[in-house]
Amino acid sequence: QVHLVESGGGLVQPGGSLRLSCAASRFTFSSYAMSWYRQAPGKERELVAAITAAGGSSNYAESMKGRFTISRDNDKNTVDLQMNRLKPEDTAVYYCAAAKSLHDIVVGTPEYWGQGTQVTVSS
Q1: 10 in the Ramachandran plot: left (φ > 0), alpha (ψ -120 to 50) or beta?
Q2: Radius of gyration of the chain (CA)
Q3: Cα–Cα distances in Å, from 87 out to 50, 63, 84?
Q4: How deeply is 23 buried, as exposed, middle or buried, from its count of CB atoms within 10 A (0-12, 13-18, 19+)?
Q5: 37: closest CA among 16, 20, 13?
Q6: pLDDT tens-digit series, residues 32-76
Q7: Which end of the chain is more exposed for a tag (fewer CB within 10 A), N or C?
Q8: What is the mean pLDDT of the chain?
Q9: Tens-place pLDDT, residues 83-104
Q10: Vertex 78 angle, CA 27 and 47, to 5°
């Protein structure tokens, strides 16, 4: 059974930073594009960032560009999301997801999902 386990969420003040991490197991991590999605209460799930299998290319939602950075370590089977200059509107549950292609990520159909980690930005 595939495992994607997110960690690093919590409460942070506006302007602060958090680093989310996702540990993957039981699939060929280095063959999958990885991504972070988020879902705020009452809102649809949205793509935050994605990175190709080899890590050579990444994409970000417009509102995250310049603030968030996605990275991966194919030796450790982890994908991280560094979030800086956080805003209250970044409050959401953040999910790690794996897909065989960036296309699958962009259209919202990753193959594997984590359980999510809560990020709350509030003073």
Answers
A1: left
A2: 13
A3: 20, 11, 9
A4: middle
A5: 20
A6: 999 999 999 999 999 999 999 998 899 999 989 999 999 999 999
A7: N
A8: 95
A9: 999 999 999 999 999 999 888 8
A10: 90
What's the one-letter identity of residue 82?
Q
pLDDT category at 107 given cuts 50, 70, 90 is confident
Question: Is the Cβ–Cβ distance between 27 and 98 less than 8 Å?
Answer: yes
Quote the CA–CA distance of 26 and 81 in Å, as a whole number: 21
Q: What single-letter amino acid sits at 15?
A: G
Q: SS3 sequence, the chain? A: CCEEEEECCEEECCCCCEEEEEEEECCCHHHCEEEEEEECCCCCCEEEEEECCCCCCEEECHHHCCCEEEEEECCCCEEEEEECCCCHHHCEEEEEEEECCHHHHHCCCCCEECCCEEEEECC
Which residue, among 32, 18, 17, has the nearest Cα to 114 in the 3D structure?
Answer: 32
